[in-house]
Amino acid sequence: MENPKLLLFLVNLLCFLSLCIAIESPQYTIVHSESDFEIRFYRKSTWMSAPVQDPSFEKATKNGFHRLFQYIQGANLNWSRIAMTAPVLTSIVPGAGPLHSSSYLVQFYLPLKFQASPPLPLPELKLKPSGWEAHCVAVRKFSGFARDEKVIKEAEKLATSLSKFPLANSTSERGYAYAIAQYDSPFRLIGRVNEVWVDVDADDLDECKSSAIAAF
């Protein structure tokens, strides 16, 4: 292949999302379900984040994930190898561009082993750890590939559903319009699972009363 970086990225994603077994994910509890979305309570957790500037959601996700993969393969000050986790979460920051944004944050959930003390990334990767306090998230599932146009449509559908739901109000405490969670390898053609995430305030749901986000 003419582009070795692209080949490395595709091979890494294939391992991450198709072949690797028993990967960890952030822990949550479903606190409310509707026909087209659900509200989850996520526990306190630590993530590693890659800020990206790019007009394209797809390109931004690839760029950020490539840097995160280098980090977990040992490009950190401890030279630690970190197990893969799921999903790959790309948060969309409000702004200009085809997705009304040109800023993204591609995020990697750190395994339990590294939650309390994540290895520091090499400076050239331009990564940063992010601490999430326990909070609630509205989640809409969708299938297929998370293309730029599809991401917009699915996010709009979730926004419409939330506007009709009296128990939850979307919040942008973290400064993100919404996030897209991807669980599958690009080589998987059928049965793909993606999600739109939106932070919500739902004080009538006991689990959501203390929703908040903090950064290290």
UniProtKB/TrEMBL annotation:
Pfam families: SOUL
Keywords from the named record: Signal
InterPro entries named in the record: Reg_factor_effector_dom_sf, SOUL_heme-bd
Leader sequence residues: 1-22
Family: Belongs to the HEBP family.
PANTHER family, per database record: HEME-BINDING PROTEIN 2, HEME-BINDING PROTEIN-RELATED
Protein name: Heme-binding protein 2-like
Annotated organism of origin: Citrullus colocynthis (colocynth)
